[in-house]
Amino acid sequence: MNPRTRFTLPPELAATEPPEQRGLARDEVRLLVAEANRPIRHTTFRNLGAYLRPGDLVVVNTSATRAAAVDGLRGDGRPVTVHLSHPTPHGDGWIVELRTPGGNARLPDAHVGELVHLPRGVTAVLIAAHPDPFRRSGSRLWLADIPVEGGVPAWLQQVGRPVTYGHLRSDPPLAAYQTVFARDPGSAEMPSAGRPFSARVLADLADRGVPVAELTLHTGVSSTESGEPPPAEWFRVPADTARQVNQARARGSRVVAVGTTVTRALESAADTCGRLSSAAGWTDLVLRPDRAPRVVNGLITGWHEPEASHLLLLEAVAGPELVGQAYTAALTEHYQWHEFGGSCLLLPML
After folding, report:
1. pTM check: above 0.90
2. Is the pLDDT of residue 342 over 90?
3. Long-range contacts, stretch 130-133, CB < 8 angstroms, 24+ apart
4. Could you tell me which of 346, 272, 261 has the C-alpha nearest to residue 310?
């Protein structure tokens, strides 16, 4: 299934560096507010609280970003960049993506059994294509055996760098990929919808009677260029967050998810009536217009690329019409895209 929101992204709208390098604070990026039955509004993220109601619940992701990219050599000596997405649910390896140096393009010719030589004498072996284990070559993702004494996460802290793509013109440090909520390492790529939050924004929400709840979902590598669904990801919804969500729904307030990661976690912990319980584990839930959310009825998000699977989730939460209006306005008003770009607040009709 493809998203109904169609557009062409001009390359000049890519945010090529963090806003801090453009002289802006994190909370000074642009915010587009798309609310049902109201005109599109343009502001800055610092004013987020003005568009929410007392009692609305904002739910954020506490996952911290790993230095999940490493450079190495293929068996024939060609350089390669490896993005380590996540360990498998059964602990029998890691899901990885092989790209050209710097992460600019996918490798179309990797194959089962290929060796990849990585820093500090580590050699990875491509065990099987993922998610289709019957494929012998050309897969985007691979199940890899990466034997490292002391474990892969500790090794990445020593040799890794943040996952980056070709739209960036610099190599920001790992700190640039952490949100103000980050404390639980595990994401291959930043849960970027939460990046514009600041202590100032959180204080303003508190003053306006808008509480904030927390959960954790560790993101894998993105799949925007292929239109594939997101991979299975580990999440945890604490009992206190489940309680706050149920109370917000009972009083008729909105549950506003900060990003597709939070939306996926909340919906994975909900029963068919939309009641949340504490939960933890791996989720492969994919929200789309034919699988509407049961809990989330507001969404803070960044801007996604054409054909991205994330657009289906946005359409599931807010409806294709409101999402389409938001994207048309963002293109017209030259919002910046990608992890260091602007933000969008989607508020469908309750």
Report:
1. yes
2. yes
3. 130/95, 130/231, 131/231
4. 261
